[in-house]
Design goal:
alpha+beta; Arc Repressor Mutant, subunit A; 9 strands
Amino acid sequence: MGGRSREPYFVQSLERGLAVIRAFDATHSELTLSEVARVCDITRATARRFLLTLTDLGYVHTDGRMFRLSPRILELGYSYLSSVGLPEIAQPHLERLVHEVHESSSVCVLDGDDIAYVARVPTSRIMTVSITVGTRFPAYLTSVGRVLLAHLPEQEIELHLKRIPFERPTSRAVSSAAMLRTELARVRAQGYAIVDQELEEGLRSVAAPIRDHNGTVVAAVNIPVHASRNSIKSIRRDLIPPLVASASRIEADLRLLPSRAGGTGPRHLPPNAS
């Protein structure tokens, strides 16, 4: 750890304390004092002081010879998770999904009768309208919107249906409340939504729900594709499995957040997305 030029503010003892914590991993869940000193390149006396301090603070357990991290160490990561929201959590999972399928992907929430983009990783532009965080579209014409609408209470669904003008930007777009109601029931049953060139000619999109720790659908993740390159069959075969897996990973991270994380729900935009 020594030999490097440091800024005047640098606290070397903090660096060493963090190094002691990082010395433990899946293959080295228990270490002796000497092993910690060797891994961290510090003296035995220094390692002993850090380990005993961490033990006093409850972050390390010891039987007198072997040391191991205690569950309380999770508080350190929990502090980070408590400070972030859905967009920050979703972003790395979107990046992984895009790398896997080579198509753009976004996370959206429901805001009134529209969907709003809160996180996005693009690959190529396939719509005439440029999409960025904060972009909005009518929910009923989008795959993410149908996922979000489908999981609302029945009374709220009916209120939405009454407000929808059912304008048809393409000839394929749904044209009545009855048609949309049937489609929403299908989305609930199958666990995903596919929209085939209803928002824009040549654009197909598939979306899956994201649930919070209570099981409430709070957002949806999508993959839009060129209709000329992707049939409905290929979307089901090639895109839905990785899409659902990505949604599950986002959900797993959301469950680690405190209960307020569910506040980034289907009716609320985060402050930085308006």
